[in-house]
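ligand=adenosine-5'-triphosphate
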Amino acid sequence: MIKINIQKKLTSAKGEMLLNIDTSIEKGSLVTLYGKSGAGKTTILRTLGGLLKPDNGKIIVDNTTWYNSEQSINLKPQKRNVGFVFQDYALFPNMTVKENLEFALEKKQSPKIITELIELIELGELQNRKPETLSGGQKQRVALARALVKKPTILMLDEPLSALDYEIRFKLQQHILQVHNEYNLTTILISHDISEILRMSNQLIELDEGKIIREGKPSEVFNIKEYNAKFQFTGTIINIEKQGFIYILMVRIGKDIVKIVADETEGKQLLIGDNILISAKAFNPIINKIN
Ligand SMILES: Nc1ncnc2c1ncn2[C@@H]1O[C@H](COP(=O)(O)OP(=O)(O)OP(=O)(O)O)[C@@H](O)[C@H]1O
């Protein structure tokens, strides 16, 4: 169990903002931090990782105190055993993929983990290449493997997938889920993508101006009925056209625009600009407005 109770004064674009977080995360969960830009998501990861000191509070991980302002405890980042993956890959350009992973090994650690990760994250063919010769998705797989070398207690992913296109993103999501389960990790992911959140995480923490405004199971927080659907994706309505008893929705999904037919009950509730979740079951699209 990770218990986080921290306060820190931040300087936002609007002036002073108090980050005030009090929550707990079950061991083994995959949690998403979600919220507007500047809400405090990255700051939470940095304070958990020991890169930034809160003004007050406590961070307790599996009964070990990582931070306690009253007892003046503040474990160094190296003692916290967290793995970070950021949107910019931060790989060493002069080292090969394998050397990048080896660099993360601790002195006493067996190099077996490197071979294991290369296999698990499918880096075999890339292991002797330098980062500059890799695609964004490949670099991010290396960054993920590197973060796992030390077998972290917590894996923290700060929008690692946002620069990648859909197909590569989906593959990386699978890799993240796979390592999360394989290594019994507690994973904290920052994401803005609702279908990614629904697919990947079992707990959602929504932040606004430094405070938690909603928290719980993602489908409950977004008020989405759970369907046993074959596929789901999210998009934004950019046009609605009524044709007799049906509505033709023009929906922007990532870089693509698609047309979807909604029935009268669904169509009446929708407006241009709404974010929707589209699920399909037996070829019938089911459209849900996301709150
Ligand atoms: N060390 C610091 N001292 C004071 N203010 C800070 C510090 N670090 C970040 N901030 C401010 O705190 C606010 C929250 O920043 P943070 O990076 O946590 O937001 P975020 O939710 O991750 O946003 P984004 O989605 O854009 O990455 C911002 O206004 C930022 O300028």
